[in-house]
Amino acid sequence: MYKYKKYFFSVLILLFAFLVACNKLVQECEEYYNPYGLEIIYCVEKYNKLVEENPDMELVDIEKIIPNIVLDIRYATKNNFTKEIIYTEAKAFARKPVVEALKKVQDSLAHHNLKIKIYDAYRPYAATVKFYEVYPDTNFVANPKFGSRHNRGCALDITLLDLSTGKEIPMPTEFDDFSEKAHPQYPNFSKEIIDNRTFLFDIMSYFGFSHYPTEWWHFDYQRWENYPLMDLSFKDLTNINK
């Protein structure tokens, strides 16, 4: 009789543990309220299923694919327009095809004695909401009603570095300069700056990127609209990419 009681209680313990795990999974993946009715992937389990169905959906750690890439992730510091630390880690993630195309850009730039510096890549949706609260100007900040192409893992904010000096080559403005000078067609610059801007646009375009209408540093990868909005944290992605 004692043996059967022991077996019975063991089964109960296992069943309880299973129910707790299931309940936790449901809670983690439970839909949260979005006032705009957007479909946003914020659950690790749903993201993993998405990647299993389509490997191109993977948000890749860019440094692992392009080891010589330079990161200057401003939103992981207070050196940004919000004056707050938004990201918990100074990391850059993007969808697998985006990173593969960016590597081709980097390889080509080496022949011109240049390399890429990244200011921002994938951006969690929560950060987009925060940005709009601070600066609700849709010329420069995405409206959370629609989400950002950064939220889709298909946008990059970049500039170019001189390989010899490690310094940025002259470009129209600093990153996140919310003025007309940031517009890709703004004309009142020196020939050197205009040539550098044109070169950046041309090489990015060749490998499938288009520049944003109001920001010379912002590039969207082709067919970005085919990728869902995401709100996974950098911590989640770091753990997944281990």
Descriptive report:
The protein has helices spanning 2-29, 44-53, 62-65, 96-110, 125-134, 191-206, 234-240, and strands at residues 40-41, 59-61, 70-71, 93-95, 114-120, 155-162, 209-212, 215-221, 229-230. Strands 3-5-6-8-7 form a five-stranded mixed β-sheet, with helices on one face. Strands 1-9 form a two-stranded parallel sheet. The chain has a two-stranded antiparallel sheet with strand order 2-4. It is built from seven helices and nine strands; from the N terminus they run αβαβαββαβαβαβββα. Helix content is 37%, strand content 16%. β7 and β8 form a beta hairpin. The termini are far apart. With 242 residues, it is α/β, with parallel strands linked by helices.
Summarize the structure.
By secondary structure, the protein is α/β, with parallel strands linked by helices. It has helices at residues 2-29, 44-53, 62-65, 96-110, 125-134, 191-206, 234-240, and strands at 40-41, 59-61, 70-71, 93-95, 114-120, 155-162, 209-212, 215-221, 229-230. Residues 1-27 have low confidence and may be disordered.
| Mean pLDDT value | 89
What summary fits the major beta sheet? 5 strands, mixed
Strand order of the largest sheet: 3-5-6-8-7
- Uncertain segments of ≥5 residues (pLDDT<50)? 1-27
Order of helices and strands: HEHEHEEHEHEHEEEH
Rg on CA atoms, Å = 22 Å
Number-wise, the strands total: 9
Question: What is the terminal separation in angstroms?
Answer: 48 Å
Which outline best applies?
A: globular
Give the number of helices: 7
Q: Helicity level, as a percent range?
A: 25-40%
